[in-house]
Amino acid sequence: MNEVKSALEIAAVDDSKFVLLSVVGSVFCCGLDFDIIVKHLKYNRKRASVKLEDTIKNFVNFFIVFMKPVIVSVKGPAIGLGASILPLCDVVWANEKAWFQTPYTRFGQSPDGCSTITFPKIMGRAAANEMLINGWKMNAQEACDKGLVSQVFWSETFTQEVMVRIQITSFNSFVLENSKALVCYNMNVELKQANERECEVLKKIWAPAQGMEYMLKYVQNKIDAF
């Protein structure tokens, strides 16, 4: 998260007109690494939970306030925070093999990435609850139908399709940034408040011993399944 944030900080002040967020390989993002989180929380849960909360909060807030357009190309799975931040970006393209899942309750967590606000607004409350509470695994076409993704392309031609559609390189930077600012103006305060609430709940989950037990159980189940 810190590395992505650092890259965005550089892009915010250089002469680029937009950011293309993509991956090398076949997995877009598997979300938070709970093996690492458990190790951090093992010795001083209170201090570690505050640090983790701040990291996630700052990461998400940077997407909220980032002034340049962010275009996302999704190949493969986008899980947890990797899926929940997508509505904070401006254009999301996916190949037909991409899928999206936010199975927070399965590993004893609560939603993040402002998804408690963005998902109901984008896809309706019923579908949002399926994603955030029931952990519905949504394929690329379903994500497009629900509004989480802009367009879906064939895997074989995905990179070419993305490159062809990036036409804003010739647009005026001032116009691009101010157009985005107008679209986001009424939402940013609400998004920041949602991020604050979500991170506060995560901290409350991580701090007590019971929260650790849920995560340890999830990590152990992963090991057993492997």
UniProtKB/TrEMBL annotation:
Protein's UniProt keywords contain Chaperone: no
InterPro entries: ClpP/crotonase-like_dom_sf (IPR029045), ECH/Chromodomain_protein (IPR051053), Enoyl-CoA_hydra/iso (IPR001753), Enoyl-CoA_hydra_C (IPR014748)
Any one Pfam family match given in the protein's UniProt record, by short name: ECH_1
Transmembrane segments: 18-38
CDD domains reported for this sequence: crotonase-like
Domain of life of the source: Eukaryota
Keywords (A to Z) from UniProt: Membrane, Transmembrane, Transmembrane helix
Cited PANTHER family: PTHR43684, TESTIS-SPECIFIC CHROMODOMAIN PROTEIN Y 1-RELATED
Protein name, per record: Uncharacterized protein
Organism: Saguinus oedipus
Phylogenetic lineage: Eukaryota, Metazoa, Chordata, Craniata, Vertebrata
